[in-house]
Amino acid sequence: MNAAKVLEDLKRRFPNEPEYHQAVEEVLGTIEEEYNKHPEFDKVNLIERLCIPDRVYQFRVTWMDDKGNIQTNMGYRVQHNNAIGPYKGGIRFHSSVNLGILKFLAFEQTFKNSLTTLPMGGGKGGSDFSPRGKSNAEVMRFCQAFMLELWRHIGPETDVPAGDIGVGGREVGYMFGMYKKLTREFSGVLTGKGREFGGSLIRPEATGYGNIYFLLEMLKTRNIDIKGKTCLVSGSGNVAQYTAEKLIELGAKVVTMSDSDGYIYDPDGIDREKLDYIMELKNLYRGRIREYAEKYGCKYVPGARPWNEKADIALPSATQNEINGDDAKALVANGVFAVSEGANMPSTPEAIRVFQDAKILYAPGKAANAGGVSVSGLEMTQNSIKLSWSQEEVDEKLKSIMKNIHEACVKYGTEPDGYINYVKGANVAGFMKVANAMMAQGIV
Ligand code: NDP
Ligand code: 2IT
């Protein structure tokens, strides 16, 4: 494989998809050496078959708002690769959603799911519908209209969606209800369901908790204790909330959280009670993080991200490309020695270079945030055996999966000077399993 040539071809065939190009470029750059050790891969053009999604569904979603106006949005499902299991990955509802973003997410998901050791292929879907400011009834009507198209393409053994930005328990519930009505089947077609109808314990917590379990493994390699460390968290949604929860439980100090309007800086640290307030504010009232600053009298910085604040550890948990090269330089200059990504691709390539050049602990999302989809995989297992496991059981399995992912990164990513390149480790480990499965299954 000539990585530069593969990328150039993809850019020519699929222009205007910069996030997709970015994700592919990162992976190709780190697997090229390993790939070229296997001439049999290139004989069957494995790399293009792995980079280009198996198929993409694209549809119009029409729904009625509370005023009786008819609205249209675009809906998508990218089925990227199912060499090791049914397509699996979240659904994102956000005004910024387009095909290129979903293709990057589905591509990343394929490697992430491979790392979990569970039998899941990669996929992602979503819509440019924005739940922000919408009533409950509007969200329900939108979810139903979305599922009216999507249902023919998914199924418990075909493609199993879940949540992502803008899609949480409420949206999954509405989509599940419509799927069930259309198919007349009660199945494990979505994960992140309510506990009463097949949802797994610990799934809401899994991405944030998993990220901290991964961080603990990284810290262990340098004998660093998390207790008392100051942490920057971005976002205030599902991933950010449970990242903060676990950090607080372990005695670390969380000083920032954010949303798309700005960030709060609380030098005293967000404690359990303050986090409960954030959870209520965000999950129940769907308010803005600014209100935290008003309630607790701390600093609020509108239109900015928290990366200029002084801390030890950063946990980006909002969205892609939220840390650029300058942000990364500021983090390192301010003493940050570990960055563990709860979000997908939150660091730009320039930011990654800054972290790696400074030899700080840096874990890419496809390793560090794999806890969410891992517990989704455990939810699928529980649904198929028609049993549910206890909180402790699921949490133990999550811990062990995150530990295994860390070990895989160390195995494939340790450089001659001992520095662990988690990006390379995660990409090579994730890639090899999918590649071997594709080779065994012939040209399909
Ligand atoms: P939520 O919708 O629950 O929360 C998203 C948070 O990020 C909100 O605070 C939101 O602010 C903020 N945000 C979203 N888009 C932007 C943007 N363009 N600029 C600035 N802030 C933004 O989503 P999740 O917590 O589920 O997802 C967060 C990240 O984690 C995403 O990258 C997702 O792909 C990734 N992820 C999620 C998993 C899961 O299980 N949910 C699993 C693995 C990764 P506002 O309230 O203003 O919209
Ligand atoms: O990015 C992700 O891994 C997710 N949004 C979770 C996917 C899932 O199927 O649980």
Automatic annotation (TrEMBL):
<dbReference type="InterPro" id="IPR033922">
    <property type="entry name" value="NAD_bind_Glu_DH"/>
</dbReference>
<keyword id="KW-0520">NAD</keyword>
<feature type="binding site">
    <location>
        <position position="163"/>
    </location>
    <ligand>
        <name>substrate</name>
    </ligand>
</feature>
<protein>
    <recommendedName>
        <fullName>Glutamate dehydrogenase</fullName>
    </recommendedName>
</protein>
<dbReference type="GO" id="GO:0004354">
    <property type="term" value="F:glutamate dehydrogenase (NADP+) activity"/>
</dbReference>
<feature type="binding site">
    <location>
        <position position="376"/>
    </location>
    <ligand>
        <name>substrate</name>
    </ligand>
</feature>
<feature type="active site" description="Proton donor">
    <location>
        <position position="124"/>
    </location>
</feature>
<comment type="subunit">
    <text>Homohexamer.</text>
</comment>
<comment type="similarity">
    <text>Belongs to the Glu/Leu/Phe/Val dehydrogenases family.</text>
</comment>
<feature type="domain" description="Glutamate/phenylalanine/leucine/valine/L-tryptophan dehydrogenase C-terminal">
    <location>
        <begin position="200"/>
        <end position="442"/>
    </location>
</feature>
<dbReference type="InterPro" id="IPR014362">
    <property type="entry name" value="Glu_DH"/>
</dbReference>
<dbReference type="Pfam" id="PF00208">
    <property type="entry name" value="ELFV_dehydrog"/>
</dbReference>
<dbReference type="InterPro" id="IPR006096">
    <property type="entry name" value="Glu/Leu/Phe/Val/Trp_DH_C"/>
</dbReference>
<dbReference type="InterPro" id="IPR006097">
    <property type="entry name" value="Glu/Leu/Phe/Val/Trp_DH_dimer"/>
</dbReference>
<dbReference type="GO" id="GO:0006537">
    <property type="term" value="P:glutamate biosynthetic process"/>
</dbReference>
<feature type="binding site">
    <location>
        <position position="207"/>
    </location>
    <ligand>
        <name>NAD(+)</name>
    </ligand>
</feature>
<feature type="binding site">
    <location>
        <position position="109"/>
    </location>
    <ligand>
        <name>substrate</name>
    </ligand>
</feature>
<feature type="binding site">
    <location>
        <position position="88"/>
    </location>
    <ligand>
        <name>substrate</name>
    </ligand>
</feature>
<dbReference type="Pfam" id="PF02812">
    <property type="entry name" value="ELFV_dehydrog_N"/>
</dbReference>
<keyword id="KW-0547">Nucleotide-binding</keyword>
<feature type="site" description="Important for catalysis">
    <location>
        <position position="164"/>
    </location>
</feature>
<dbReference type="InterPro" id="IPR006095">
    <property type="entry name" value="Glu/Leu/Phe/Val/Trp_DH"/>
</dbReference>
<keyword id="KW-0560">Oxidoreductase</keyword>
<feature type="binding site">
    <location>
        <position position="238"/>
    </location>
    <ligand>
        <name>NAD(+)</name>
    </ligand>
</feature>
<dbReference type="InterPro" id="IPR050724">
    <property type="entry name" value="Glu_Leu_Phe_Val_DH"/>
</dbReference>
<dbReference type="InterPro" id="IPR033524">
    <property type="entry name" value="Glu/Leu/Phe/Val_DH_AS"/>
</dbReference>
<dbReference type="GO" id="GO:0000166">
    <property type="term" value="F:nucleotide binding"/>
</dbReference>
<dbReference type="GO" id="GO:0005829">
    <property type="term" value="C:cytosol"/>
</dbReference>
<feature type="binding site">
    <location>
        <position position="112"/>
    </location>
    <ligand>
        <name>substrate</name>
    </ligand>
</feature>
<dbReference type="InterPro" id="IPR036291">
    <property type="entry name" value="NAD(P)-bd_dom_sf"/>
</dbReference>
<dbReference type="InterPro" id="IPR046346">
    <property type="entry name" value="Aminoacid_DH-like_N_sf"/>
</dbReference>
